[in-house]
Each structure stands twice: as C-alpha cells, then as structure tokens.
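FORM 12-B: Structure-to-Sequence Request
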C-alpha cells in the first residue's frame, strides 16, 4: 500500500514509467487515425454515392457528422480526461472509433453511415485530447517532452497528408468500405496494447463538465450546419431554414450567457478581448473553411471532369498535402526570426493566392494546371499549421494556454464543418442554375436541383444513363460545364476566405512574438542569472 502511494506521488511529480516510448507509440497510432479519417473519405464520395444511392446532402452529412461531433467535444474532452482518467478516456475513444468504423464499413443506408460517423467523431475527439494529456503526464517538461510531442505531431501530419492517397488506394483495390474497416484490426490491437502499457492517471481537482454549455454549443453548430446543407433542397426562405438559422443565433447567445456565468467555463469569453488571440483564432477558422474544406471538393473535380480513378485523384493531391508534412520544421525556424503576424498572415496569403491560381480551370485543363496553386497553397498551410497553436498560446497568460489551444482548435474544426456545408451548397446551387440556363430539351426546372445534387456528388455518368439516348451527349457536356462553373465559384470563395483571414491576422496580431521567439529570448537571460 505504501509503495503504491509512493509510486503515484512520484508520477504526479513527473517521474516517468519505464515504458514511456511504448506509451508514445500507443497514443501516436491512436491519434494517427483521427486526421486520417477526416481526409480519407473525400476520395470515396462518388463510390459511396453510387453504392448507397445517396444525395449530395447525404454525402455532406457523412463528412460533417464526424466534423461536428469532433468539434463539439474538443473543449469538453480535456475535462473529461482529467476527471475520469486519461487512459480510460483514451480507451473509450478508441473503442467508439473502432466499433463505429465497423458500423460504417457495413452500412447499407446513408442514415446508418451518417450516425456512425457522428459517433466516430466523438471517439476521435476523446482520442486526440486524452493522448495529449497522457503525453504531458508521461514525459518531463523540457527537451524530452518536446521530442515526444514532435513525434506525435509528425504522425498526425502523416495521417492528414497521406489520407487522400490511402483512401484512393483502398477504394481502387478493394472498395470504399475498407477505408473504415481497416481501422478495426488496428483499433482492436491498440486496445490490448494500451491496457498493457499505459497506466491510469487523473486530476482529483479537475473541473466539472459544463454539460449545459456543451449542449447549447453543439445544438447551435448543428442547426447552422443543417441550414447550410439543406437550404437548396428546402428553400432558403422556407420556414424550416429560417427557423434553423434563428435557432442557431438564439443558442449561440444562450451559450455566451451560460459561459459568462460559469465559475469554470469551458470557453472563457474574456479571451476574446485579446486582439492577438482573436486574430489567431480567425486565421485558424479561415484555414479550416478554405484549405481543409476544399480538400473535400478537389477530388470531385479530378473524378467528375478529368475522369481520374480514386487512386489517381489521391496521387494528384500529393503536391497539396505533402507540404503539410515537410514544411512545419521550416515554419518553426522562420518563427524564430519573423514576427508572428508576418509568418501567419504570409502563410495564409500563400493559401489564398494558391486558390486564385486554380481559378478558371476547364474540361481541357490538365492536372498540371493545378500544380503551381497546389504547391503554393500547400506550402503556405504547412508553414503555419503548427505555428497557429504556438502563437495562440504565446499571446495568453500561461494559466490560460490549455483553454486557448482548445478554443483555437474549435475555431478551426468548426469552420471546417461550416465551410464544407457552405461550399457544397453553393456548388450545388451553381450547377443547378447552369443546367437551367442550358435550356436542354426535356430538362424541366423542377428537376434541376435533384440532377445538380447527383452531379455534384460525382455521379455524372449515372445521371446521363437515366436520360433518353438522344439527350445523353448534349446533357453530359452541359452537366460537365455546369460542374466546372460551380467548382470555379467555390475555388474563388475559398481564396477570398483565406485572403480575409490573412488580412485579419495582420491587423489584429500586431507584433506579438511566437512561442519559439519567447523561448529563444529567455535562454540568454536565464544563463546570465
């Protein structure tokens, strides 16, 4: 008994278990699955549409079900891990992720797939946040912890950057179901490994979970996203859509009131009085709504217009995604010499200009027409991905760093979900409008929205086959042109979003120093003392 108490006390003071690198391996593999399942699905959308006969709105929900639940629980997951046990929450998240991956892989209806993806997003949030808590508990502060977090971040980068290629490979060689089923044996093995290698830890003084704030925030985000996705189908001025938009506004207002009155809020609204923190959070939001949202729609262009297979489309995205893996170290070095406002706004400016470069593509454009824009946007995003979190922490008091990091992540992932919804809605609307203006004989206006939904989902060939033979060639050309019109519209909107984010950051962040600059300046003064 005395030895056990001594061991727990020693761990609380920072002594480390002998198997700490096995713990790093466990949490890194677990969190590798989180970004992978955000990006891997994009390449499978046309196959999911043809297999389950989904609408374009269904496909958006399949993606955003994951994103919404993931975003909603980011702020609460840390408190849950501290209160109920970090290993326990990691295992709960892993179990949810594994079981829902199996359900996704076996799904026979769009509703089943969407619900399973929503629970999978909850599992992903628990995995991500509890893994950070486990690493902080396991590794001493200083170079050892920095190295551990470096490995963890590298694995996350691999999952995000190679997700589209892995998805394309699985869809081409097996089927879309294997982008989910592949998680099952990994999850089962990792549960056993975690139970044998990772010790439990918790904070007895952890705050209580803010369930009321969590409920209002989640409901507001869901209502807004639902309105954006279903607006074309139900009508933007319909009572249902206007009611959802009003409900989102009321729920957000209620969330603000609840957080203001909490003694330990999960979202400290006073942080929004810090202009530099607001600027950094807006940058994170613009990054999610532009760069990450477009990763969903770029494969559709390659498959719908250029006729590429899922694997080919995934390979074509590598110039955009690989810089996410290789550029963060360069971003860290630049952060030591450049003001934060220049690095962050400059990186986001590169993302915006990259999308501007992609604007104007057509059916005759080779994939190489995207290459300069891909490289420019990918390098820009890679330079600032890690530095967004570093600057968000640096501009706040140390005791607020954890909450600041969580809020910035919530801005990024929440904007990602809303960006997917808004860009998809505009894509479908422009495709429908272009079809109506084509004045094809036999194409009634009432059917244009339904046809546009199928075309946007990547089922151009399936739509053509439903038409009389005499209309097929003319409709195929008109449908492809309408998709190109819609695609160029959302590329332009993504560019505008990125450029506005760059401007907001440049104006608000001022001359704040990044975390790496602060550490660099503290070393000489520490040595002198």
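FORM 12-B RESPONSE
SEQUENCE OUT:
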């Amino acid at each position: 008994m005395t030895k056990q108490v001594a061991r727990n006390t020693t761990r609380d003071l920072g002594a480390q278990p002998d198997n700490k690198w096995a713990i790093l391996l466990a949490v890194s593999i677990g969190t590798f699955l989180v970004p992978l399942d955000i990006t891997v699905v994009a390449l499978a959308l046309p196959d999911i549409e043809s297999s389950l006969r989904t609408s374009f709105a269904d496909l958006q929900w399949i993606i955003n079900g994951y994103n919404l639940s993931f975003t909603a629980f980011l702020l609460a997951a840390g408190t849950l891990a501290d209160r109920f046990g970090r290993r326990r929450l990691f295992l709960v998240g892993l179990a949810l992720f594994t079981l829902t991956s199996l359900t996704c892989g076996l799904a026979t209806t769009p509703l089943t797939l969407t619900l399973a993806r929503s629970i999978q997003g909850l599992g992903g949030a628990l995995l991500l946040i509890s893994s950070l808590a486990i690493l902080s508990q396991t590794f001493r502060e200083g170079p050892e912890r920095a190295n551990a977090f470096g490995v963890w971040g590298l694995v996350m980068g691999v999952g995000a950057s190679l997700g589209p290629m892995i998805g394309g490979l699985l869809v081409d060689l097996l089927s879309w179901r294997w982008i989910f089923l592949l998680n099952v044996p990994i999850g089962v093995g990792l549960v056993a490994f975690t139970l044998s290698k990772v010790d439990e830890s918790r904070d007895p003084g952890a705050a209580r979970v803010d369930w009321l704030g969590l409920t209002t925030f989640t409901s507001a985000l869901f209502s807004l996203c639902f309105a954006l996705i279903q607006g074309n189908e139900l009508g933007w001025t319909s009572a249902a859509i206007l009611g959802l938009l009003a409900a989102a506004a009321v729920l957000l207002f209620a969330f603000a009131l609840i957080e203001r009155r909490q003694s330990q809020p999960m979202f400290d609204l006073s942080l929004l009085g810090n202009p530099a923190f607001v600027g950094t959070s807006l940058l994170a939001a613009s990054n999610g709504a532009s760069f990450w949202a477009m990763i969903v729609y770029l494969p559709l262009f390659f498959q719908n217009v250029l006729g590429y297979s899922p694997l080919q489309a995934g390979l074509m995205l590598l110039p955009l995604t690989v810089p996410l893996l290789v550029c963060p170290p360069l971003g860290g070095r630049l952060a030591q010499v450049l003001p934060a406002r220049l690095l962050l706004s400059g990186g986001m400016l590169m993302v915006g200009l990259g999308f501007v470069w992609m604007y104007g593509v057509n059916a005759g454009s080779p994939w190489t027409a995207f290459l300069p824009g891909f490289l420019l946007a990918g390098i820009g995003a890679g330079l600032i991905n890690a530095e967004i979190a570093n600057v968000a922490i640096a501009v706040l008091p140390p005791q607020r760093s954890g909450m600041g990091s969580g809020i910035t992540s919530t801005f990024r992932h929440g904007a990602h979900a809303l960006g997917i919804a808004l860009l998809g809605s505009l894509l479908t609307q422009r495709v429908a409008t272009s079809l109506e203006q084509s004045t094809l004989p036999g194409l009634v206006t009432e059917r244009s929205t339904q046809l546009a939904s199928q075309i946007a989902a990547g089922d151009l060939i399936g739509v053509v086959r439903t038409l009389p033979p005499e209309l097929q060639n003319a409709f195929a050309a008109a449908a492809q042109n309408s998709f190109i019109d819609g695609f160029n519209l959302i590329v332009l909107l993504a560019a505008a979003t990125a450029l506005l984010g760059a401007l907001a950051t440049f104006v608000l962040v001022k001359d704040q120093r990044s975390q790496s600059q602060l550490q660099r300046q503290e070393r000489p003064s520490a040595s002198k003392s």
